[in-house]
Design a protein that fits this description.
By secondary structure, the protein is mainly beta. It folds into two domains: about 15-80, no CATH class; about 85-400, Neuraminidase, CATH 2.120.10. It is built from six helices and 26 strands. It has helices at about 15-25, 40-45, 50-55, 60-65, 70-80, 335-340; strands spanning about 85-90, 95-100, 110-115, 115-120, 130, 140-145, 150-160, 165-170, 170-175, 180-185, 190-200, 210-215, 225-240, 245-250, 260-265, 270-275, 285-290, 295-300, 305, 310-320, 325-330, 345-350, 355-360, 370-375, 380-385, 400. A seven-stranded antiparallel β-sheet has the order 10-11-12-13-14-15-16, with no helix packed on it. A six-stranded mixed β-sheet has the order 3-25-24-23-22-19, with no helix packed on it. Strands 5, 6, 7, 8 and 9 form a five-stranded antiparallel β-sheet that branches. A hairpin with a 4-residue loop joins strand 20 (about 310-320) and strand 21 (about 325-330). The longest helix has 15 residues, at about 15-25. Pfam families: F-box, FBA_3. It comes from Camelina sativa (False flax). This is F-box protein At2g19630. InterPro entries: F-box-assoc_dom_typ3, F-box-assoc_interact_dom, F-box-like_dom_sf, F-box_dom.
């Protein structure tokens, strides 16, 4: 007699119950001799879609214990079949609007994508937040409330891909004029952290950072801790987190002199060190992850702005941090570049895992495009992002993030 094969979905409720029943018999020493081993259940759960993971935690204690293991979380994030997303954010009337669209992998022709909208609003009256660079699909929003005798910093964590309301974190009272914020991840301890660089006022200027406050997510008691910085500095522009290290550009010494360097913050040890830049690198260059190494993108004019008159793009790569060795790669743009890009200026978004430089407009008026320039093929592809134009206004401003 031929055995009948039956197609079942790993996300089907009956399949989940059946797997759980066989797993329970295996653990409890039941009569089922071919029960599913725990390591096989582990592999099966890794293949489930994200929406099913939360439901599966309620199936049994065994499944719940597997799903909360740090090694499962790490493998699930790295082996997820969901392609990376591009995240767009724009403030509008004290609300923050997010849009997500699939990140194009190896683009070979002009195309268009439909974005999904999501918006968040704080539970108190305040201005639009500062946005930290997303990490692991999570976004940290930093709101500031004015209080008598100082300010209150209120971070909130959200995940735009799920559309759920943002989760507020403990507030921090401060009298500082400026607060630079970063959202970072420790891949060894499997911990997310929020780092705030506290900027002291200095006669109308922003001053330098002499101390930082840090908060670790996932602990029983969420509280802010002070950490000292060995050299006072003033962070400029947003940073990037690579293998547990946060890199960002900063001004040191006399903040009026404009002497810039790159700060490296080790997320696990919570210590600072400095990476010397090549003298030809601009303080306006955009830090990127180039094949696991720190890189910096800039235009032929030595800044982060690109337009139709730009002739080449530069990529600096940190070869040896101890010796402060950098390599410089110049990529000449083809003649058709002038016909592809709009008249408005573009800015660097980042670098994809397929070595595509991504650029976008900061202030689009009608159609919103992002551009992919491949470093190996020297091709330029533009992708239209649909569904955002209804939110545009004259002073509309969009920030774009990769690998969300």
């Amino acid at each position: 007699m031929k055995s009948q094969q039956q197609h079942v979905s790993e996300d089907d409720p009956q399949t989940i119950v059946a797997l759980n029943s066989r797993a329970s018999k295996s653990v409890n020493g039941g009569e089922n001799s071919d029960a599913i081993p725990v390591d096989l259940i582990f592999e099966i759960l890794l293949k489930l879609p994200t929406k099913s993971i939360a439901r599966c935690r309620c199936v049994s204690k065994l499944w719940s214990s597997i799903l909360v293991r740090p090694d499962f979380t790490e493998l699930f994030l790295t082996r997820s079949t969901t392609p990376p997303q591009v995240l767009f954010s724009s403030p509008n009337n004290r609300e923050l609007f997010f849009f997500t669209a699939p990140q194009v992998q190896n683009p070979d022709q002009n195309s268009s994508l439909v974005s999904r909208p999501y918006h968040t609003k704080p539970p108190f009256d305040c201005c639009s937040p500062r946005i930290c660079v997303p990490v692991g699909g999570l976004v940290c929003l930093i709101y500031k409330r004015n209080l008598e005798g100082g300010n209150e910093i209120v971070p909130m964590i959200c995940k735009p891909s799920t559309g759920r309301q943002a989760l507020p974190l403990p507030a921090l009272k401060t009298t500082r004029v400026q607060v630079k914020s970063f959202f970072v991840y420790d891949p060894i301890g499997k911990l997310f952290k929020v780092l705030l660089s506290m900027i002291l006022p200095c006669h109308g200027n922003e001053g330098n950072c002499k101390e930082c406050q840090i908060l670790t997510l996932g602990t029983q008691t969420l509280s802010w801790r002070k950490i000292d910085c060995c050299i006072p500095h003033r962070p400029i522009y947003r940073g990037i987190c690579i293998d547990g290290c946060l890199y960002y550009q900063a001004l040191v010494d006399d903040h009026r002199s404009g002497v810039s360097t790159i700060v490296c913050f080790d997320v696990r040890s919570e210590t600072f060190r400095f990476v010397k830049k090549d003298i030809a690198m601009s303080s306006e260059s955009t830090l990127v992850n180039y094949e696991g190494r720190l890189g910096a993108l800039q235009s032929d004019r030595g800044n982060k702005r690109v337009n139709s008159q730009t002739r080449s793009l530069e990529l600096w790569v940190l070869v040896d941090a101890e010796k402060n060795e950098w390599s410089n790669n110049v990529y000449d743009l083809p003649p058709l570049w002038k016909n592809i890009v709009p008249k408005a200026e573009l800015c660097f978004v980042g670098l994809t895992s397929t070595n595509d430089i991504v650029l976008s407009e900061r202030n689009p008026f009608d159609i919103f495009w992002i551009f992919y320039y491949n470093l190996e093929r020297h091709t330029i592809i533009k992708v239209e992002i649909q569904g955002m134009d209804v939110y545009f206004s004259y002073y509309h401003r969009v920030q774009t993030y990769l690998n969300v």
